[in-house]
């Protein structure tokens, strides 16, 4: 990898990211059931019906995993704290074992010189709250706020930065409209409510965090470079609708206190009554914005289908194991677009970027030049965005470890470190070594 730290501004943070349910092993330590446990238990939802019960057993192997980060020479670690681990029923009783675990984990990061970047919700909706409608229930904002207070009182004094929600589009649209993620709904009314309530919960969390004296508060949004399938006006309009739903809804709610007209045209009839009054809470000021970026998509018009009248059209660039096109220019585009259209000089972090590849261990090693090239190309895009004036402060590779890739189970390998899901043995891939060497230069 032809890169070094000196290619980036002084103080630029390099890191790797994970999420609780994807690595910890949710059956350990008194965690409560989540909607992912029950979603995975239904045939057809998840490859081989796999769940996060064991995952990478990070719950027991966290020290070795933190050592991997330290040995890579990264500056920061993006992790999440599971709601259902801390409050097994989602509200009420607190699981002290869960709090103790995160307390040890944060101390372990600090002992290794790693800056803790915490995410408060990376998809572990406690089942007891899912029973009450989860993200479709307006009360979720208050339930989430209570959890935020409990975990922040325990570790907030030591985290370097905190994000409220990871990828609200996935939490809402992917999970309630497309049905690919838990709770697996395909219902536009549930979608509109989830898309609004997830932002309301974000705003509520910002308020609770500020009241506790917490600073460096952000949110992590995912973006997908959207292009029209052709120059035909119908396809151009379809791409604008897709862009509004995926890329604009959440950032406009937060940065401007409004939702894009192209998305409201289909969602407005299904929004909860009086939603407009929540926009002040949703647009409470934040301190930084996390950008997750993986790929691009072509959108075509599907006039014979209900709103949003969209069809996916495959592109012809090389693809990752997920079938996602590799398109680094999209990352540069979103970083500069966020700065230009929404957040100005506010610090931006690339909170996730990475690729899945069918890596195999051969003679005790994993050779993945594809990943190193992907990483170098996307870091190049970050450099170009910085040169164009975007205030990008850091980059987190997704993911440190191969892990539970949600509906794809353990099949898709995103890690810098290979995990054998039988023996749980960790094997740093050649991309890990190349990344470490670039950071040491
Ligand atoms: O694994 C996920 C992660 O949980 C959220 N962002 C995208 C990743 C890859 O699909």
Short structural description:
This protein has helices at residues 20-23, 35-40, 58-72, 83-86, 96-111, 127-130, 140-155, 168-176, 188-211, 233-256, 261-267, 279-282, 329-343, 369-387, 430-440, and strands at 13-17, 76-80, 115-121, 161-166, 217-228, 288-301, 310-313, 348-352, 392-398, 417-419, 426-428. The chain has 441 residues and is of the alpha/beta class.
Outline the structure in words:
The chain has 15 helices and eleven strands. With 441 residues, the protein is α/β, with parallel strands linked by helices. It has a single domain, classed as Glycosidases (TIM Barrel). The structure holds 5-hydroxymethyl-3,4-dihydroxypiperidine.
List the helices and strands and how they pair.
Elements: E1 13-17, H1 20-23, H2 35-40, H3 58-72, E2 76-80, H4 83-86, H5 96-111, E3 115-121, H6 127-130, H7 140-155, E4 161-166, H8 168-176, H9 188-211, E5 217-228, H10 233-256, H11 261-267, H12 279-282, E6 288-301, E7 310-313, H13 329-343, E8 348-352, H14 369-387, E9 392-398, E10 417-419, E11 426-428, H15 430-440
Parallel strand pairs: 1-2, 1-9, 2-3, 3-4, 4-5, 5-6, 6-8, 8-9
Antiparallel strand pairs: 6-7, 10-11
Helix pairs in contact: 3-5, 7-9, 8-9, 13-14, 14-15
The structure holds 5-hydroxymethyl-3,4-dihydroxypiperidine (IFM).
Features of this protein?
TIM Barrel, 16% strand, alpha/beta, 441 residues, binds 5-hydroxymethyl-3,4-dihydroxypiperidine
